[in-house]
Amino acid sequence: MNEPSLHARGGALRLAGTITRGEFTLAVDISVEPGEIVALSGPNGVGKTTVLRFLAGLGGTLDPDGTYTLGGEDMTHLPPEHRRLAVVFQEPRLVPHMTAETNVSFAATLSGIPRADAHRRAAELLDELGLPPNKHTLKPTKLSGGQRGRVAIARALAAQSPRLRLLDEPLAAIDAPSRGPLRDVLARHLADSDAPTILVTHDPTDVKALATRDIPLG
Ligand SMILES: Nc1ncnc2c1ncn2[C@@H]1O[C@H](COP(=O)(O)OP(=O)(O)OP(=O)(O)O)[C@@H](O)[C@H]1O
After folding, report:
1. Distance from residue 13's CA to the centre of ligand 1 (Å)
2. What are the TM regions of this chain, as residue ranges (predicted)?
3. Which of 12, 55, 65, 125 could form a disulfide with 154 if both were Cys (CB 3.0 to 4.6 A apart)?
């Protein structure tokens, strides 16, 4: 039986096999080492988001002969909430009844950070990502798209020791002048992490600044 992996060690990602989502199928063979940041590239519709959604447990199936492991542990049937992933999806998926800061601190506490530290960490991350202090206590519906995007990035960086980071166009909603500084914030935090990271982006500057390797799909 699969136990919650709250204290499971990190390790390499191995994903191989055929992923199916509705009518769409895609053969993948992806390995990412701890600390590696891999850019998943390819044209619109090739299946980048499908791969990330499958890894997060949000949809899609892997053929019975396929492999999805982290540090050797089979993740295929582990409930999403037990996978210890840090994710940024194209739609920010914030918890609607929580404030910006609570969305971030909640992710930190779920990862084992004590509540007081989690609040401090959330405030620091939101500051670092340029969310004005008077917006920290607002709920997502009171924030702009770019502000919600900043909260989603902060949330993905708040969890301690995630086993895998999945970043799907993390800077897509960010205005052009802020993109460079936010890319630097992301780069700094990712450099400190032992988790394997998969980044999906159409921006070559992101790939150059953030990724250590490119995996073309299709
Ligand atoms: N909910 C869904 N159910 C079934 N098929 C879907 C669904 N969403 C997308 N698809 C199909 O899956 C395929 C891959 O889509 P996906 O979003 O993974 O591509 P992508 O590489 O991330 O594209 P983009 O660069 O445009 O974001 C597409 O052909 C798309 O039509």
Report:
1. 22
2. none
3. 125
Cβ 172 under 6 angstroms from ligand 1: no
Task: Tell me the one-letter amino acid at 122.
Answer: A
Could you give the C-alpha distances from 115 to 5, 102, 109, 131, 180, in angstroms and in order? 20, 11, 6, 21, 31
User: If you take atom 31 of ligand 1, which residue's CA is the nearest one?
Assistant: 45
Q: Is the pLDDT of residue 101 over 60?
A: yes
Whether 41 lines ligand 1, by a CB cut-off of 6 Å, is no
44 lines ligand 1 (CB under 6 A): yes
Question: What pLDDT shows up at residue 9?
Answer: 57
Tokens describing residue 197: 């990271």
Judged against a pLDDT cut of 90, whether residue 95 lies above it is answered with yes
In a domain, 199, yes or no: yes
Q: Give me the CATH number covering residue 55.
A: 3.40.50.300
